[in-house]
Amino acid sequence: MAASPIRASPVTAGQPTVRIRVVAAASGAIVTAVAAAVLSAGTPAVAQAATSQREVSSAGPHMRAPDLGTGSTIKHGLSSSNSLDWAGYAVTGPTITSVSGSWTQPVATCPGTKAGQSAFWVGIDGFTSDSPTVEQIGTDADCTKGTHKNPGGPVHYAWFEMYPLPLVVLDPVAYPVTPGNVLTASVTASGSNYVLAISDVGHWSYSTTQAASGGALNSSAELVTEAPLLCKNGKCKPIALTDFSSVAFTGATVNGVALTGPGLTANRITMTRNKKGTAVKASTSALDPTGHAFVVSWLAN
Fold first, then answer.
1. Could you give the dihedral angle defined by the CA atoms of residues 34, 161, 227 and 75, in that order, rounded to the nearest 10 degrees?
2. Between β-strands 78-83 and 265-272, what pairing exists: parallel, antiparallel or unpaired?
3. Residues 4-298, CATH architecture
4. How far apart are CA 203 and CA 175, in angstroms?
């Protein structure tokens, strides 16, 4: 079975996840650290991939909520926890109808021939243990694997995913992601559909309406930096987290209000190498006084 990189709900203590990380592009090849083949797609909204690259059916659904552990805290509408693959905030409360936020696309710093990935996104669902779907849109700052003769390098691109469907990468010619530019993204529940939108302010915008997958709960909203997991033969582990220095999420809203709005609980997540949180990979700052902004900082891969 080919190794399959996946996006996932946050996990701790090696819990398996299922969100298959398919890398594809409508124009030109996007080759990432964990891709077993170069994939391509005919349009920005349709991704094609070899079966050996995805192995969707063999993964099996194992969506997991993060284990808060003995060192977690919950008070005054704020919670904290550790995760092996997420850093940022997940917000729970009444039915979630929308999430939005902005970030400046970080630069992927790629040392030598080592590969890595980091993703920055907003989404609905996927945080709680009973959530079988995730609706999300964002960007990546990745490092491709190289050799001494052909060194790897940074790759930046935009994508969306309606789990359990595969991730779709947007055409990098029509929708280029440039480090230093400001991206704004949102996911909005609209009846039995979701509207996913992303824009590079002043340069381009993209929006797609996707039908909800069965079982969508609208139970959480996320603004997250992620290190996708690599799964092979049923065993999963986080891949190297690309050095992105730091990324500031601003203008963050859930249901049109601050992350600490009435009835909402903002769950602060730190990315660590283990459940105890003794080795931090990416730290998450406290929310600013308005409840609309925070910073995730890279510490280790």
1. -170
2. parallel
3. Sandwich (2.60)
4. 9
Entry field: residues in the chain: 301
Indicate if the alpha-carbon torsion angle 175, 179, 182, 187 is positive or negative.
Answer: positive
Could you give the CA distance from residue 121 to residue 296 in angstroms, rounded to a whole number? 12
CA gap 243, 206 in Å, rounded? 27
* Cα 208 to Cα 48: distance, rounded to the nearest angstrom: 18
Residue 45 CA to residue 60 CA, distance in Å, equals 24
Which residue type sits at 199? S
Rg (CA), the chain: 17
In the block, tokens 């905030």 appear at 89
The pLDDT tens digits for 208-218 are 999 998 889 99
Which residues pair with residue 197 across a beta bridge?
186, 207
Measured between alpha carbons, how far is 93 from 264 in angstroms, rounded to an integer? 5
Span 38-92, pLDDT tens digits: 222 222 222 322 222 222 222 222 233 333 333 444 333 567 889 989 999 999 9
Q: How far does Cα 213 stand from its chain's mean position?
A: 18
* Nearest to 127, CA basis, from 180, 156, 89: 89
CB atoms within 10 A of CB 113: 15
